[in-house]
Design brief:
By secondary structure, the chain is α/β, with parallel strands linked by helices. The protein has two domains: about 40-60 and about 80-230, P-loop containing nucleotide triphosphate hydrolases (Rossmann fold), CATH 3.40.50.300; about 245-279, no CATH class. The chain contains ten helices and ten strands. The strands form two sheets. Strands 6-7-8-3-9-10 form a six-stranded mixed β-sheet, sandwiched between helices. Strand 4 and strand 5 form a beta hairpin. Helix 5 (about 150-160) packs parallel to helix 6 (about 180-195). The longest helix has 18 residues, at about 180-195. The structure holds adenosine-5'-triphosphate and magnesium ion. Adenosine-5'-triphosphate binds near residues 46 and 51.
């Protein structure tokens, strides 16, 4: 794992990314300053075209910014000589489309990023094998991508992203093509890896349910950070909003509306009232 400075995996200062030829320039990023600590699980949200993928591309050293500072794992990317090597050592990628190689089975796909490592074939195979166990695919190791479900393919993609023990995993809409059940499973898996292995995750998503499973939600708009909230404060905001609804007002008064008594709210009305009064 690459060294991290002050425990920060990402540090940017006034990051600007322009695309185009000067006549029709697009300001995809327009001054992004933020940082991400090692071990954080961050969701990035924002409308289409707001700059989320561009930001991820900068953090993953897939492209360099037009100006501003972008430090990843303690290294200023503009000064890194071999970006390809830096990327493969430091960052794991998971995309909306899994990008698995169709002619390789699951275990061979996970071995691909390990080809550059000086390790024996047996060690490489053992590492890929362990990673597929980690993502709960022990019974699908020899299946080809076409023989796997969408969720299973994304599990292979996650295992592949973890192959080089990266400081962080960047995921661009990893659940964009999945149904809600597979989405929840993939999120659960990424959270477990984050907790157990301490891997930092930065996940772009349009799905509020996915974002709420993060520690923090960064909202991008017009190439800038519009909001940067800890999930705790997001939930507190939800509670405050709920308190102002008809049901919230009734419960704050300790009243359970007759119409929904059958739901068993009587049993929890008193503690709910105490919570709502507190906020
Ligand atoms: N290679 C490129 N050349 C020119 N413009 C680009 C390029 N890549 C992105 N852009 C522009 O930069 C802006 C930000 O694009 P980006 O892909 O980062 O948005 P996004 O937030 O990821 O959107 P989505 O949610 O649709 O994926 C858009 O206006 C887009 O048209
Ligand atoms: Mg995008």
């Amino acid at each position: 794992m690459t060294n991290t400075n002050n425990n920060l995996v990402v540090e940017t200062e006034n990051l600007i990314k322009l695309y185009g030829d000067g006549i029709e320039t697009v300001r995809a990023l327009n001054g992004v300053s933020f940082s991400i600590r090692a071990g954080e699980f961050v969701a990035v949200m924002g409308p289409s075209g707001s700059g989320k993928s561009t930001l991820l591309n900068m953090l993953g050293a897939l492209d360099l910014p037009s100006s501003g500072m972008c430090k990843v794992a303690g290294q200023e990317l503009a000064h890194v000589k071999d970006l390809d090597r830096f990327r493969s050592k430091t960052v794991g990628f998971v995309f909306q489309l899994h990008n698995l190689i169709p002619t390789l089975n699951a275990i061979e796909n996970v071995e691909v990023p390990l080809q550059e490592e000086k390790m024996s074939d047996a060690a490489r195979h053992a590492r890929a094998d362990a990673l597929l166990n980690l993502v709960n695919l022990s019974d699908r190791k020899h299946f080809f991508p076409a023989q796997l479900s969408g969720g299973q393919r994304q599990r292979v993609a996650i295992a592949r992203a973890l192959a080089n023990q990266p400081a962080m995993v960047l995921a661009d809409e990893p659940t964009g093509n999945l149904d809600s059940k597979s989405t929840a499973e993939i999120m659960e898996l990424m959270r477990r890896i984050n907790r157990e292995q301490g891997t930092t995750f930065i996940v772009v998503t349009h799905n509020p349910a996915v974002a709420r499973a993060a520690d923090r939600i960064v909202t991008v708009r017009d190439g800038k950070i519009l909001r940067d909230e800890k999930i705790e404060s997001v939930y507190l905001e939800d509670l405050k909003e709920f308190k102002e609804t008809a049901l919230g007002l009734a419960l704050t008064e300790g009243n359970v509306p007759e119409e929904i008594r059958h739901l068993g709210l009587d049993g929890v009305a008193a503690p709910l009232r105490d919570v709502l009064k507190k906020i």
